[in-house]
# Entry
Amino acid sequence: MNADVWLVVGLGNPGPSYAGNRHNAGFMVLDLLAERAGGRFKSHKARADVLEGRLGGARAVLAKPRTFMNESGGPVKALRDFYKVPVERIVVVHDELDIPFGVLRLKQGGGDNGHNGLRSITKSLGEKDYLRVRFGVGRPPGRMDAAAFVLKDFSAVERRDLALEVDRAADAVEALVGGGLAAAQNTFHAS
# Structure
C-alpha cells in the first residue's frame, strides 16, 4: 500500500441531466477541488475521471466515477488497487439525507444509511472504514420518496447558498487530508 497518497472520491450520477441534483453534491465538491488544484479531470481505465495533484499539502487523486451512483464501488476499488491507497486514506464526499442542508459532518466508517453509493463502495472494498464528508441535503418534504428527492435539483432557496456550501465542503476535504479527521471535525462540526 502507498501511504503517501490520498484517494478523494466525489459521488454523483454522470451526465448533464443530473448535474444540479442533490445526489451530485459530491461531484460539485470535486469539481471545485479540481479548479483549486488548477487541473482538469482525465478519463481513467477504472471507469472514472481522475485528477492527480496536491490537496492540503499532500499528494491526492481526485476521482468522479463515470458509473451511476449505485455502481460507484467498482471504480473506487479499481482506483484503490491501481494507486495502492490504504482504506484509511480514502475519502468519499456524498450527499446525506439525515443532515440538514448547510451542515457538514465528517466521520470514519459506519453504515451506508440507505445510500446506494456507499453501499456499493463498502461491498466492493470489503470494508467500511473509509472517511466520509457528508454534505447535508435534508429530508424530503411531506411524503416525497427519498430517491425522488435526491434526484431533484437543489431548490431555488438552497441554490442561493449552494456555492458557499460547496466551498465549505471543499475546505473540509482539504482540512481532513492536510490535518486529520479530529482537527477537521473540530473546525467544521462547530459551524
